[in-house]
Amino acid sequence: MTILFRPRPSVVRRDSGLYGYERALARRGLSPIAGVDEAGRGACAGPLVVAAVVLRSEIDGLADSKLLTPARREVLHERILATAHAVNVVVTPPDEIDARGLHKCNIAGMRRAVAGLGCDLGYVLIDGFPVPGLPAPSLAVWKGDQVSACVAAASIVAKVTRDRMMTSLDDLYPQYGFAEHKGYVTAGHRRALAAHGPSPHHRFSFVTVNSVVRSGAGAEIGDNEMGAGVL
Question: Is 50 helix (H, G, I), strand (E, B) or coil?
Answer without folding.
Answer: strand
